[in-house]
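To whoever is covering the structure queue this week,

Two jobs came back overnight. Logging them here so there's a record in the thread.

Job A:
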Amino acid sequence: MIRSHNEGIVAWAQTRQTNGLREAINGLVQAAERRARGYGRFDTIKTVSFLISRNLDLQANQPSRPATHLNFRRDMKFADFHVDQVIKAGPYRVSEEEIVAFAKLYDPQWFHTDPAASADGFHNGLIASGWHTCGIAMRLAVDSALTGSESYASPGLAYVKWLLPVRPADELSFKATILEVRRARGKPRLGILRWRWQLHNGKGAEVLDLEATSLFDLPPQHGPSGMS
């Protein structure tokens, strides 16, 4: 009897989700495929799936865990970026465990690694390493813009500012503003993107501000016309 339900038991132990939820989602996808029949774009199927799933309570079936970056991942190309464009992602909830684990590996100062000692310290509690905060911004930039793009490197940052400490349970929202998009002179395959990244906590206070440059490897036919 138990063996016949082994797969469902293991799935519940690992994800706290039943096979019923998975079957419901699978049914939605199949229904979306039927409704989108005749359209050649996979994006159409994804859109239809989203629209018809509005009555499915996914939140009630989720295990209890911190919220992370919740925006839909998008696949952007260099040609999709333009000056004054704003890209947002998040929120990303930062846990005490994550703060301590990162700091023990890369920035083992006591106010990042020792919650008890930090409680009586200058910051009145544990705070995240600034480099951890930058890493969170990097992850949100990748998820919201760079995944699937031609990005391959970065020459560095113009500046980085840690404006306020990041604390356990903070929920960070990412905002990127495009400052410059161009092709390098004499190197038509080299795309250059200069953008400003900002992170704000749940109270709306800015905790990180930096300016990054990303490089893109472009085939000659890619990118907006007229760039040089």
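Job B:
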Amino acid sequence: MSERELRRNLSILPIGTVRELTLLTDRQIRYYEQQKLIAPGRGKGGQRRFSLNDVDRLLEIRDFLDAGDSIKDIQEIFAKQRRKAQEKQDSEAALRRSLQKNSPNLDDSGLIKKGQSWLAKLLPKKKLSKSWQTKTWSLSA
């Protein structure tokens, strides 16, 4: 997970701030938590603390409700989104495993471990060089 995503997941916003950002009431926010549409963190003393992703989710919920969707519809939409995201992660993991199995020169992250031979075969007319300072590959004619 990127640093940006980690920051978006930090539960630091109190319910008052979230109320002002989303134009929802405290009661609505608590109700959406009760319906498991959001899952805010808890601070010291048990106060709800919301992340930026929670705020985005609440805005989505409000938009769905304004469009005439019910809470049950929204739960189904979010469940479908979670399934799709999980399928994408599973697919990417399977692709990574396949690449590692079929390309022994790749490390766990899918980057080149050592050697350029297989790339040289793919790009015979290009010269492949690696910048050791930036650890990036570049092609030159």
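Note for Job B: Helices lie at 3-8, 15-22, 26-34, 52-66, 71-102, 117-122.

Please reply-all if you pick these up so we don't duplicate work.
Q.
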